């Protein structure tokens, strides 16, 4: 018997290396087990991609509607595009490698975006922030935090909102509804 630890079960290439499918399955099983423990869901529910973000977890728990979730995802993508075309750093980089790519240090596209694309993204982002500012003005007398702050903390900074008070969730819904109207969803 060879010294060392036992081999993991699974299909292997002729050289003895495990197949890619087996290693991906192992990685997914670790993520699914972590989601099951952390969020208290079943194995089938843990495969739901919405559990990967704070916004998605609110949609998963049905604290926001599916349309509001889609509007939040659209705003997140718009915010990411705006940061990229303006040369701004990501508000919450997922990894050092992602930060290096975003800053153009490693693996970034060498070409600059076209000016009309930059202007279009800036116009759309300004329209979205104007809609959120209007929500702040409308909700200034309500309890809880401002809708713009809640959207930023939930979508851009990926802050977990499960324990937010009901007033904040209500203000977040108001902001997401404004984005639904803006994006015509």
Brief descriptors of the model:
185 residues; mainly alpha; 60% helix; extended
Care to give the gist of this entry?
With 185 residues, this protein is mostly helical. It has helices spanning 20-39, 43-46, 54-60, 66-86, 96-102, 115-138, 147-156, 166-183.
Kindly describe this structure.
It is built from eight helices and no strands. By secondary structure, the chain is mainly α. Helix 4 packs across helix 6 (115-138) and helix 6 packs across helix 8 (166-183). The longest helix has 24 residues, at 115-138.
What's the SSE blueprint?
Layout (H helix, E strand, L loop, with lengths): L19 H20 L3 H4 L7 H7 L5 H21 L9 H7 L12 H24 L8 H10 L9 H18 L2
Helix pairs in contact: 3-4, 4-6, 4-8, 6-8, 7-8
Q: How many helices?
A: 8
Determine the fraction of residues in helical runs and give it as a percent range.
Answer: 55-70%
Biggest sheet descriptor:
none
What portion of residues belong to β-strands?
under 5%
Number of DSSP E strands: 0
Mean pLDDT: 83
Q: pLDDT below 50 for ≥5 consecutive residues: which ranges? A: none
Radius of gyration: 21 Å
Q: What structural category arises from helix and sheet content?
A: mainly alpha
**End-to-end distance:** 63 Å
* Shape by Cα distribution: extended
């Amino acid at each position: 018997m060879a010294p060392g630890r036992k081999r993991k079960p699974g299909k292997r290439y002729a050289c003895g290396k495990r197949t890619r499918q087996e290693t991906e399955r192992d990685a997914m099983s670790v993520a699914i087990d972590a989601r099951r423990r952390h969020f208290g869901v079943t194995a089938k529910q843990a495969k739901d991609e919405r559990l990967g973000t704070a916004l998605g977890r609110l949609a998963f728990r049905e604290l926001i509607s599916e349309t509001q979730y889609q509007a939040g995802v659209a705003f997140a993508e718009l915010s990411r595009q705006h940061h990229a075309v303006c040369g701004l750093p990501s508000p919450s980089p997922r990894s050092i490698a992602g930060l290096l790519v975003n800053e153009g240090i490693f693996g970034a596209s060498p070409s600059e975006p076209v000016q009309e694309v930059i202007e279009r993204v800036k116009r759309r982002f300004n329209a979205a922030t104007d809609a959120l500012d209007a929500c702040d003005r409308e909700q200034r007398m309500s309890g809880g935090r401002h809708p713009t702050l809640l959207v930023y903390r939930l979508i851009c900074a990926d802050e977990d909102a499960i324990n937010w008070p009901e007033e904040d969730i209500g203000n977040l819904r108001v902001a997401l509804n404004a984005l639904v109207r803006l994006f015509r969803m």
